[in-house]
Amino acid sequence: MMLTLEDFGTIFLLASFIGGLAVTYPALAFVLPPRTGERFSELYVLGPSRMAEGYPFNVRAGEAYSVYLGVGNHMGSSAYHVLYVKLRDQNEPLPNCTSGSPSPLPPVYEYRFLVRDGGVWERLLEFSFGEITFAADSCFLSGITLNGVEFAVGKEAHWDPENKGFFFELFFELWIYDLEAQSFSFHDRFVGIWLNMTH
């Protein structure tokens, strides 16, 4: 098969284009930003056997319970976090991730920690409840103990006839340190577990 003058021209143009790319690519690497994946943090809670099962649910005063809390950092750099532990009844507000606002409830407990990029922070949270008082249609919780430290909470739950219980939610908000603002801000991540107070 014989190549025509047009074939040689096409081959020459193609070779010139590929050669030009090979020469300019290293220079373009300094000008174009590198491609990066999505940057995010993950927040999770696991049961006492470090599995996504066996979470405490029916709880009573004086007994100890535990869960594992974890944060994974995929932000592209090390990040300083605060994890707030909060307790609410069914009528109190959760964070609003649509507006990026945390729950206005005060934290009961907190963890502060640094996680390198690609790293994971994980801790065991042990908790128990002080006096729980039951009335006809309400349950009053006086205090909670977290990792051996007692906190007064003074919260009341009303009987839920649909789900048949007195429910509180132990939930966890993730905050991250903002270098520009030089303060912590809510990181739009939260997770929680429901607890049914029993006699």
Structural features, described:
This protein has one helix spanning 5-31, and strands at 40-46, 58-59, 65-74, 79-89, 109-115, 120-129, 132-134, 138-146, 149-158, 167-178, 183-197. It is mainly beta and 199 residues long. The longest helix has 27 residues, at 5-31.
Briefly, what is this?
The chain has 199 residues and is mainly beta.
SSE order, as H and E? HEEEEEEEEEEE
Q: Given the helix and strand composition, which structural class is it?
A: mainly beta
The coarse silhouette is: elongated
Count the domains: 2
Question: For the CA atoms, what is the radius of gyration?
Answer: 27 Å
**CATH fold-level topology of the largest domain:** Immunoglobulin-like
> Considering DSSP H and I runs of 4 or more, what fraction of the residues is helical?
10-25%
**How many strands, what sense, and barrel or not for the largest sheet?**
6 strands, antiparallel
Q: Please report the distance between the alpha carbons of the first and last residues.
A: 93 Å
CATH classification, class level of the largest domain: Mainly Beta
Strand content: over 45%
Mean pLDDT value = 88
Can you tell me the residue ranges where pLDDT is under 50 for at least 5 consecutive residues? 24-35
**Would you identify the CATH architecture of the largest domain?**
Sandwich
